[in-house]
Amino acid sequence: MSRTILVVDDEPDIRELIRLSLERLGGHRVVACASGAEALGRLPEEPVDGVLLDVRMPGMDGPEVLAALRRTPAGADVPVVFLTASVLEVQMADLRALDVRGVVRKPFDPLALPAEVALAFGWAA
Amino acid sequence: MSDPPTSPDPPDQPDQPDQSGRRTAVLAAARIAPGWSEERFDRITRLAAKLLDVPMAMINLVAEHQWTKAAHGIEGAPTPLRDSICRHAVDSGTALEVADMTQDGRFEGNVFVTRDPHLRFYAARPLAVEGLDVGTLCVMDTAPRELDEDQRAVLDELAAWAEAELNNASLNALVRRVQEQQRLTGLVLTSADEGIVGCDHDGVVVFANPAALALLGRDEGELVGRRLHDVVHPARPDGTPFPTAQCATHRAMTRGEPLTAHETSFVRSDGTWVPIEQTVAPMRDADALVGSVVTFRDVSARTEIARLKAEFVGVVSHELRTPLTSIRGSLALLGAGVMGPLADEQRPLVDMALANVERLGHLVDDILDLERLDAGRLPLRPAAIDAADLVREVVDLLSPAAQAAGVALAAARPLPAGPVTVDAGRLLQALTNLVGNAVKFTEAGGEVTVRVTTDERAVRVHVTDTGRGIPADRLGSVFDRFVHIDGDATRTKGSGLGLSITRGIVERSGGRVEVASELGVGSTFTVELPRRYDEVSGAAAGPAPVTPTADPQGAP
């Protein structure tokens, strides 16, 4: 089933890879943003099914964007999945403890990403 | 003309190099040197001339040549042995008395007889230093004469006096030598770059060299007489109390246990902490512990370098990883035909690019792992597991690669349970490196077998291949980084870090790795891990976290 996914990542190459993977392989529609601020601006005018949110970003980091999101009407209930390069289990556990559906690890395999993202959001594949 | 009372013929071979060498050594050790006159010897020759009523008296020393220590009525000069008259007395070790030298064959043609001062009469007594005859006290005259008994007795007495003076010189030299040695030892201690502190068996400082004082920013009065621990560890660097009982330095000093390359921190008088590497060496006197010597140096430069290196490696790895991720992702999408089908001639290039980007990725991962192993920052989460399960997992994981290479990879049956406490993921990585290597270095048709053996102490995993084997001279270096067993990095496509990482992980887990190999037959790598005993009083006897060089209570 096709969904609209808001992807927030400061690295343009990674954004493009995610977009290609989720659109071409997953059959979804991707709205890509380079920062949390941009995402917070886009969300009210662009209803999405889920937000794929990078953790380490300049300016607001992932958890800060999440907190800001939850304070807006448009973002209060939207499902969020973190994207992180962290390999430490403690940090992963800290992230999972926040109000998110799941965590997807970087680096990801673009061929497997659609299935991973669906699993994290709890969407039927 | 009567014969002198005691004058046996000197030895036939006048030159005795051994003897003259020994004499030189004795004189040197006694610091009896030519070149200056000393009143205490001059006095004896003066008195000899007066008492015996002769114009000339000398104290001569005979070693590789003859030289004069004191002379009265004659100039002393270095004389070769062949012209030396005294050496006849020295060599024979007995008194020598010649009434008229022109009548004695031993002195036929002697320059002192034929030329100035035209000696006729000569009488000498040998002088010994530390039991070895090294010279004479002699009296001479230009006219023939004889000594009477009284005069001979006087000469004996004067010779005994001269001998005593010579040996006194030897004693003075010994005292000077000890003083010199003390001065040198002091110089070594004060010049040493490292802090050196001597403590008694209660850990109280009795000596501190200038480097120690400078390092701690203290003067002697603030350190000597106080317990070292009290001065350098008033608290832990984080401000919490530092009980004496927990101080490794103090423990080593009071128990007499040596401590080597131990890292801690000492506080300076201004309150700043200095990272220190110290060595504690117990001082024993007849088996009783009398104290210890603590040698220490500031390792902040090294600590800072290690930190910079870790930071550099971390940043570089991250900076490498990010573009690698993009390249790998793009190639994966291309290769999978997501962007449209690839032409037949395009596919091999994309596959090659993908394979190499994978290799680069592994290299970056390996460098990061190794850096964290070096710094002791590779997080390990030990858990109770069965090594046999890991072996099965590794075999499953690498079976496709083995199959592709035509190598028969199998776990030996039966596979006994191997109870260990390790980080399963990291040990899996270690075993994957070993088994992967074995597969890589085994020709098609060969075998790789993984066995588990156990005894009461240890669990061992053996990875045996039928590969070409490792030359004996390279066995010792296979675990070094960037070492390729066959010396060919491009052929094997490995990072050259796998075995270093394997060893690092196994050692951090309290175990060790060994290798045995026979050229043309194959190699066996063995991972030995401490066995876990859950059943013994319910306590898991797994490996304790290994932090080899730090205070157990965490003083850095």
From TrEMBL, chain A:
<dbReference type="InterPro" id="IPR011006">
    <property type="entry name" value="CheY-like_superfamily"/>
</dbReference>
<dbReference type="Pfam" id="PF00072">
    <property type="entry name" value="Response_reg"/>
</dbReference>
<dbReference type="GO" id="GO:0000160">
    <property type="term" value="P:phosphorelay signal transduction system"/>
</dbReference>
<feature type="modified residue" description="4-aspartylphosphate">
    <location>
        <position position="54"/>
    </location>
</feature>
<dbReference type="InterPro" id="IPR001789">
    <property type="entry name" value="Sig_transdc_resp-reg_receiver"/>
</dbReference>
<protein>
    <submittedName>
        <fullName>Chemotaxis protein CheY</fullName>
    </submittedName>
</protein>
<keyword id="KW-0597">Phosphoprotein</keyword>
<dbReference type="InterPro" id="IPR050595">
    <property type="entry name" value="Bact_response_regulator"/>
</dbReference>
<feature type="domain" description="Response regulatory">
    <location>
        <begin position="4"/>
        <end position="121"/>
    </location>
</feature>
Automatic annotation (TrEMBL), chain B:
<dbReference type="GO" id="GO:0005886">
    <property type="term" value="C:plasma membrane"/>
</dbReference>
<dbReference type="InterPro" id="IPR003594">
    <property type="entry name" value="HATPase_dom"/>
</dbReference>
<feature type="region of interest" description="Disordered">
    <location>
        <begin position="1"/>
        <end position="23"/>
    </location>
</feature>
<dbReference type="Pfam" id="PF00512">
    <property type="entry name" value="HisKA"/>
</dbReference>
<feature type="compositionally biased region" description="Pro residues">
    <location>
        <begin position="1"/>
        <end position="14"/>
    </location>
</feature>
<keyword id="KW-0418">Kinase</keyword>
<dbReference type="GO" id="GO:0000155">
    <property type="term" value="F:phosphorelay sensor kinase activity"/>
</dbReference>
<dbReference type="InterPro" id="IPR001610">
    <property type="entry name" value="PAC"/>
</dbReference>
<feature type="compositionally biased region" description="Low complexity">
    <location>
        <begin position="538"/>
        <end position="556"/>
    </location>
</feature>
<feature type="domain" description="Histidine kinase">
    <location>
        <begin position="315"/>
        <end position="533"/>
    </location>
</feature>
<dbReference type="Pfam" id="PF02518">
    <property type="entry name" value="HATPase_c"/>
</dbReference>
<feature type="domain" description="PAS">
    <location>
        <begin position="181"/>
        <end position="234"/>
    </location>
</feature>
<dbReference type="InterPro" id="IPR013767">
    <property type="entry name" value="PAS_fold"/>
</dbReference>
<dbReference type="Pfam" id="PF01590">
    <property type="entry name" value="GAF"/>
</dbReference>
<dbReference type="InterPro" id="IPR036890">
    <property type="entry name" value="HATPase_C_sf"/>
</dbReference>
<keyword id="KW-0597">Phosphoprotein</keyword>
<dbReference type="Pfam" id="PF00989">
    <property type="entry name" value="PAS"/>
</dbReference>
<dbReference type="InterPro" id="IPR050736">
    <property type="entry name" value="Sensor_HK_Regulatory"/>
</dbReference>
<feature type="domain" description="PAC">
    <location>
        <begin position="260"/>
        <end position="311"/>
    </location>
</feature>
<keyword id="KW-0902">Two-component regulatory system</keyword>
<dbReference type="InterPro" id="IPR003661">
    <property type="entry name" value="HisK_dim/P_dom"/>
</dbReference>
<dbReference type="InterPro" id="IPR004358">
    <property type="entry name" value="Sig_transdc_His_kin-like_C"/>
</dbReference>
